[in-house]
Amino acid sequence: MISSVAQTPIARKISTNAVIRTVFANGSISRADIAKLTGLSKQTISDVVRDLEDDGWLKPVGQTDGRPGRNAITYEINARAGLAVSIDLGSTKIAAAICDLLGNVVAETKVSTDPRGGMHLVNQFSDLIVELAFAAGTTADKLRLVVLGSPGVLDPATGHINVAPSIPGIDAINLRQVFSDRMAIPVIVENDVNLAAQGERWRGHGIETSNFAFVALGTGVGMGIIANGTLLRGARGAAGEIAYLPIGGDAFDPGGFTLGTFESAVGSAAMLRRYVGFGGRNASTVADLFAAFNAGETSAAAAIEETARLVAVAIAAIGAALDPELVITGGSIGARPELVNAIRGFLPRCTPYPPRIEISRFGNRAALMGGMGIAVERMHDDLFGVKLREV
Amino acid sequence: MISSVAQTPIARKISTNAVIRTVFANGSISRADIAKLTGLSKQTISDVVRDLEDDGWLKPVGQTDGRPGRNAITYEINARAGLAVSIDLGSTKIAAAICDLLGNVVAETKVSTDPRGGMHLVNQFSDLIVELAFAAGTTADKLRLVVLGSPGVLDPATGHINVAPSIPGIDAINLRQVFSDRMAIPVIVENDVNLAAQGERWRGHGIETSNFAFVALGTGVGMGIIANGTLLRGARGAAGEIAYLPIGGDAFDPGGFTLGTFESAVGSAAMLRRYVGFGGRNASTVADLFAAFNAGETSAAAAIEETARLVAVAIAAIGAALDPELVITGGSIGARPELVNAIRGFLPRCTPYPPRIEISRFGNRAALMGGMGIAVERMHDDLFGVKLREV
DNA sequence: TCCCATTTGTCAAGGACATAGACAAATTGC
DNA sequence: GCAATTTGTCTATGTCCTTGACAAATGGGA
């Protein structure tokens, strides 16, 4: 025998999947209505719903009322039947949340990142999860999945983080493996900007758009791409690493290799340098610089204007390559409306088909949201997905 | 009743699909071997194969021999059971071919493009197909599908060609609709560079690569992107329109809007202009220019060098956005090894992670090949694909 | 209050498709 | 010629789905 006999026959899996999807789409629904919507017979629906209720995935919640005919029992997803964790690892803060099968946030917290990095972070994650699980009224071993967002370039195959300048020691261990072994739960590691893009796709500006880019502008720069409705990672996981775009400087300058030509031109350090170059004196952080701009300082305005011009050219380049319908900006610089308005002004002057520009809906929670979105999607796939046999 | 009862139950469709895929993967195979490879029972395989043979999809071809035990009858795909047409519409030539279910070319031809454009082209396609069908020993009404590659930006939803400078009158009609109505066959219209990328994906350099780009350099410039193994079209079908990359000129120069900044800098007109600027006198076409280069003319070398430098920067930009493993070049300029070698020299100096560069395997037949690849894939989907019911 | 139309959900019968195992037929090797 | 091996069919059995009948529950009207 090459393949063992399927535990649950394919036909029943398909029926179960159809029922689950129908209940997800409709919230609270009777078996008779499920039958009408799926086209399956009442008998089949009753069987499937009985199995799902026995296994805890569905629960009866009430009755129809007021219409002629016998009242129907209505069923809902038992959201608590699947809980997962999303963690956003930043260089200064770690945000974490537990969400249920419907994507509701059940518990959430935020702590300072352990500056020692490496295995200390794994310990920190582990403690966070135990604490969150308690707050959610459950225990860590009941959690089905962890999605971890991290800066850096991840190898799509192994999950190893190859480049992560801002987090010490994290490229020395196989974070996914170590963390997963420690918790005895599957762990997905993903680039934080990619997660932010997924977050916007799930419940943000990208909800109705299959082709958009999330551009993060802050200390560093990065991009997450949603194309044909799914995340685009590239051959080495480096898709969207726009730090290396040959814009804002000479592409052949060897200095661009370390930081990246574009990042050297529009990162927060470059902005402050530019501000000082224009004669500014009152800003040591980007927040100061925007404050100076709002106070009417011309050198701050010039620094922002020049940055916006370069970002507009970068977006033109991205538009020529990817044709996104929408570009969502985020990060400490990218979330500033002052900058985004300036970009909106430049864009139609450097590309014939400018995409729409929006500021991220979730601010610094975008990556956390994206992690939850992936977790929910993955739980659905694992629990109710229909997988055809590989030949 | 909302949905009509499925004609063929899903389980049988899945089994049929598994059988077909196994036969495709193994060429000539016995029913017993199909059973071993799929894990399905011998009985089921016999039933499915009998149905497929009755309907003409499979045919017995011989017997096993020489091994102990009873000889088995071997079966093959009946390749002639599905024939489709691929057409590559160029500004000067139209190439067309008929291929079978296995992607074998059954008939092929090439004619000059009718310069009057518009509906005259539809007539020309129609005549070509009738002629090819005759050469293939069949009739046009037996063909299942036409894939048409055309220059220009196509709306992914409607198939309408929005921008096509080199073909007159083709943006005035809904080519897909008109052509499909005329032939009474489904027609797929796709950008020619996208088709070239698909061709390389199907049977060229991209056969083992899920993330690569096909860059066409000639009179105009364009790019086809394969990401996650599938074609990337973008929101308006303009993904890969690298003519508008802000490279090789000032992105804010309004002149760049008509032709595109990058195309103005590296198209064949720009190359010849550059050659003359360097003092060249002996070239009125790009072929002349490369001949002058091979004769040792320094102004030709300088023109090619400068073009290669700009293309390298463009590939660096594409690499930063998409992280392809490979870039395949084609077109009258992009297929020249002289240029590609120069690009290979520049690339590591302007990007830290240069992709591999290869010249298209199919020359000017790449788009035709891509059309066949799509046609074969689509025929398989239509004929044997498993579609789950939409809820 | 009673009856009817309507709706829900279960029961029972039947069909399609799958599997397992027995078995006849065909072939090689000794 | 006989054993071993392999192919492909036949028979029995089980699962899943559908259909149609029917009991149970409900609202509205006489």
Describe the secondary-structure layout.
The structure is a homodimer of 391-residue chains.
Chain A: H1 10-26, E1 29-30, H2 31-38, H3 42-54, E2 58-63, E3 73-77, E4 84-89, E5 93-99, E6 105-112, H4 119-135, E7 146-150, E8 153-154, E9 161-163, H5 175-183, E10 187-191, H6 192-203, E11 212-217, E12 221-227, E13 230-231, H7 256-259, H8 261-266, H9 268-277, H10 286-294, H11 298-322, E14 326-330, H12 331-334, H13 337-350, E15 356-359, H14 366-384
Parallel strand pairs in A: 4-7, 7-10, 11-14, 14-15
Antiparallel strand pairs in A: 1-3, 2-3, 4-5, 5-6, 8-9, 11-12, 12-13
Helix pairs in contact in A: 1-3, 2-3, 6-14, 9-11, 10-11, 11-13
Chain A binds a DNA duplex (30 and 30 nucleotides) through helix 1 and helix 3.
Quick overview of this protein structure:
Two copies of one chain form a homodimer. With 391 residues, the first copy, chain A, is of the alpha/beta class. Chain A is built from 14 helices and 15 strands.
Q: Portion of residues in helices of chain A? A: 40-55%
Oligomer kind: homodimer
Strand order of the largest sheet of chain A: 6-5-4-7-10
Secondary-structure element order of chain A, as H and E? HEHHEEEEEHEEEHEHEEEHHHHHEHHEH
The 3D shape of chain A can be described as elongated
Strand content of chain A: 15-25%
Number of helices of chain A: 14
Largest interface: A-B, 68 and 68 residues
Strand runs of chain A, count: 15
Unreliable spans of chain A: 1-7
* Overall SS class of chain A: alpha/beta
Q: For the report, how would you describe the main beta sheet of chain A?
A: 5 strands, mixed
Q: Mean pLDDT across all residues of chain A, rounded? A: 92
